């Protein structure tokens, strides 16, 4: 998978490395901003109230 | 064969990186966000208080609480000299990300009944991380901009199950309080990283003083 991405990036090795870093940062951003906040309530750390449920 | 092994190892590496990132998010990033969100909430409250004309406490009619908006700032000296968190109206997940949450159906601050507040034990700034250290006699100090309310803990930490809503009743069951009064209840989860139980402490209103008279002694002792 990673090899496939690397082969399909344009430019020489330096340009590819740069694009890879940008891609990684973008993935981390999406995870922190959207995916993790969504996944967090599925874990038990958020239940601090007495609610009869 | 080689292709399968490669795909599988890449999958494992990806999954491992995901888990590490998620732990970093929980342990670190939610704390960073909670610190800035709670500081902003306290800021908003203090600016609103500074703008409001100073009226002596009994004369002021308290504004009804609005869900998601700050209502007070809480100080608990036992949890740290710098321990200070905003109390917001409501106990939804989005509210508890920014500070402590006041159970909507319970009494107003300083009022007759039970002013019940929930907070995270872990993640989102760990406000109630040291909850088990609370002891009878400890002060829980709150201010709503006009009055300092000093509550004293009577009972706790008491361990119960999540469905035990009687702990936030006006006269909480098991608290030892017998008649109606001005009470305060704090709730958080137990064990530290779990949700099978809840930890509770109960307190009663010990003293009030107008903010114009300065900080209560309990904060500096």
Task: Write a structural description.
Chain A: The chain crosses the membrane at residues 12-36. Chain A: Keywords: Membrane, Transmembrane, Transmembrane helix. Chain A: This is Membrane protein. The complex is a heterodimer of chains A (53) and B (221). Chain A is an all-alpha fold. Chain A has one domain (2-40). Chain A contains 2 helices and no strands. The mean pLDDT of chain A is 87. Chain B contains 2 helices and 8 strands. Chain B has an 8-stranded mixed β-barrel with strand order 1-2-3-4-7-8-6-5. Chain B is globular. The model of chain B has no long low-confidence stretch (mean pLDDT 90). Chains A and B meet through helix 2 of A and helix 1 and strand 7 of B.
Q: Identify the overall geometry of chain B.
A: globular
Q: Would you give the CATH topology of chain B?
A: Sortase, Chain: A
Please give the alpha-carbon distance between the first and last residues of chain A: 43 Å
Pair with the biggest interface: A-B, 21 and 38 residues
Reported CATH architecture of chain B? Beta Barrel
Strand-residue proportion of chain A: under 5%
Organism (chain A): Streptomyces vietnamensis
Transmembrane segments (chain A): 12-36
Protein name (chain A): Membrane protein
Keywords (chain A): Membrane, Transmembrane, Transmembrane helix
Summarize the structure.
The complex is a heterodimer of chains A (53) and B (221). Chain A has 53 residues and is mainly alpha-helical.
Describe the protein's topology.
The complex is a heterodimer of chains A (53) and B (221).
Chain A: H1 2-8, H2 13-39
Chain B: H1 2-51, E1 70-75, E2 84-89, H2 93-96, E3 100-102, E4 113-118, E5 139-143, E6 147-160, E7 182-190, E8 197-210
